[in-house]
Amino acid sequence: MAEAHQAVAFQFTVTPEGIDLQLSHQALTEIYLSGMRSWKKRIVRLKNSVITGVYPASPSSWLFVVIAILATMYTRSDPSMGLIAKIQEHLPVSQSMSTQCQAVLSAVLFSTMLWLLLIFTMRLCLKQLLSYHRWMFEQHGKMSTTTKIWVALVRIFSGRKPLLYSYQGSLPNLPLPTVKDTVKRYLESVRPLMDDVEYERMTKLAAEFQSSLSNRLQWYLKLKTLWASNYVSDWWEEYVYLRGRGPIMVNSNYYGMDFLYVTPTPIQAARAGNSIHAFFLYRRKLNKEEIKPWLLRSAVPCCSYQFERMFNTCRIPGTVTDTVQHWQDSDYIVVYHRGRYFRLRVYQAGRLLSPREIEFQIQRILDDPVLPCQGEAKLGALTAGDRIPWAKARAKYFSSGVNKRSLDCIERAAFFVTLDDDEQGMMGDDPVASLDRYAKSLLHGKCYDRWFDKSFSVVYYKNGKNGVNGEHSWADAPVVAHLWEYTLATDSFHLGYNAEGHCKGEVDSSLPRPQKLAWEIPKECEEQISQSLTVAQALADDVDFHVFPFRDFGKGKVKKCRVSPDAFIQMALQLAYYRERGTFCLTYEASMTRLFREGRTETVRSCTNESSAFVRALEGGEAADVCRRLFNAASEKHQLLYRMAMTGGGIDRHLFCLYVVSKYLGVESPFLKEVLSEPWRLSTSQTPIQQGELFDMVNHPEYISCGGGFGPVADDGYGVSYCILGENLINFHISCKHSCPDTDAHKFGVQIRKALHDLMQLLSPNYKEPKKMEATKPEDKKDL
């Protein structure tokens, strides 16, 4: 128990001579430095709040306005048109203050009010400017005069050197579409999925809804748009994520992979040392708001509020609904290894441990022979199973004593780390199967060796590979992807390793050892752990995964065909699904709505009348010219739907909110009920590369992530995630369930590959499909 003794700042003993007080200088120093670090963070937070609060102006501009007003006063002119004199009249009379001092004070007060008015005006102007979205619908590369003027004005009113949250107060609210427009677009979206009889029935349901309930439900949403900054996000977080009572593992959580072709070091502890250090460097930048806001077209800001709960955050189970708990700071992480949980402090004497020191501490955990406590080894299965049993077990067995202290330690940690004894990545004689195993390991692991409630968990494998598992309620995948890109780049290109593969730097061997968490798990709780593990294991075993890098061509060749790469891939997915199932299905593609304050996602319904017409023509043997014309119409329609979703003109979030209001009011709508119960048999998402400048795709093309993926949304459907990397690579992650006889991830992967080649052959007749290649890494790339 040496760790416990080191944590005691003082000891006292009662003797016949009196009380013998012994102070620990080291512990008191730690307390002092920890307090100093905390106060520094508060000061930085306060400073950033002031800077963000007055943006797009700057605090120094206040002094400029004051000096300007005072200067004009000394020239015997009154820029306030008598307001300064009015303020002076109403100042409290003080005999110690001369008339001149009162005049100066009045001028300062007037200057401050004028400055605040200017800030309000600039922010209002910027908000109105950012509400203009016509630029998104213009042909790429051809900007109208109106848009050019708009871009110039946005840059003028945007100020200089914005912090991460500087634009938050200037972002427009998400607009509320009319019920008429939403229903019209909905009926158009389901037309290719229904025969005439079904479509006629749905049309009647929609008409009945519009003539009865719609106006009442819409009125409540209008009221919410006036009161809340976003009429969707809070309900989306609560009802889609937090109120789900099934397992979040597989069903909600998602994952991100390591580099595809290289492993920077084969030493597990060293890889953990560098990347954990990089995570905390990112958190430091996040706390200081030094991360640049994401700008579209280098001018249009996106909402950054999802970054606020990235670290020190955990999902807390409840019997009715879960909650997301966020803490301001945490100076440690929790590490899981071979059934044991360790608390690892990453700050010593107020400074962040170096990568080499973190490696040293991780190696201590790997070498620690201590056995798990009774019931500790598979405790994490509680977070993988159903939510209600976990909520009840948490309240009954973890609400007091040593269990509460240890659980608090996990939940309050900056993030969670698993040291896995398996080896993963693209390796061996069967690289295809190894990638599939890698994906399943990151998605669910052994069902008890991850803490699925943490905002994100990082897994380090025995051979140096790593990956991340993200909880979905607090933020969407692009936010975690931003963190992951920074960590991968910092790990490999900035921190690096020595010749032996260890982290660089020296080690302070006097560092206190990582502290093993203690548990007292009763038999009844062990039974619940076992039950949760049974549920989670059945879910994990049912997941079929296939990951493959498509290297035959990428977005470079697609763009030469004058087609959007995303639309090209979506049309390939429609073609692949039709060839496999002989029909079309409701297709979900995630689009972001971060152009608006607190925006998250909207659905792009990729299966359209145009896409189905194209697929039928191609499969029906129509002439190539006809197919090309239909393909262009389908891809343009997809781009239009995507842009409408991004600019607040989507379908599904509006219908979802109308449904929530109907439930609050206790009224039933057959139309809304049917719409919300339709299964998404093809759920897709693109993982964009947001920080391409961090990677050198020309000189180091092997340093690319394989992207990430998620589990299937429907029991009889597919989940497809794809990542477009550089000009010549697209990575696909396909998931489905073994229990469905109609789905097979590998067969669908074959169909996707064939569809991609067929579309390229159609658009570029001179294109020839390359000979079948093994899914191994290229010869010119080195697996370090």
How far apart the termini lie comes to 40 Å
| CATH topology term of the largest domain | Chloramphenicol Acetyltransferase
Uncertain parts: 1-10, 773-784
Number of helices: 24
CATH-scheme architecture of the largest domain? 2-Layer Sandwich
Sheet-strand content, in percent, reads: 5-15%
Organism: Betta splendens
Enzyme class: transferase
Family: Belongs to the carnitine/choline acetyltransferase family.
Main location: mitochondrion
Tell me about this structure.
By secondary structure, this protein is of the alpha+beta class. It has 2 domains: 279 residues, Chloramphenicol acetyltransferase-like domain (Chloramphenicol Acetyltransferase), CATH 3.30.559.10; 293 residues, Choline/Carnitine o-acyltransferase, domain 2 (Chloramphenicol Acetyltransferase, 2-Layer Sandwich), CATH 3.30.559. 46% of the residues lie in helices and 13% in strands. It has 24 helices and 22 strands. The strands form 6 sheets. The protein has an 8-stranded mixed beta sheet with strand order 15-9-8-12-13-14-3-20, sandwiched between helices. The longest helix has 32 residues. The N terminus and C terminus are likely disordered. It is found in: Mitochondrion outer membrane. One of its GO terms (biological process) is carnitine metabolic process. Keywords: Acyltransferase, Fatty acid metabolism, Lipid metabolism, Membrane, Mitochondrion, Transferase, Transmembrane, Transmembrane helix, Transport.
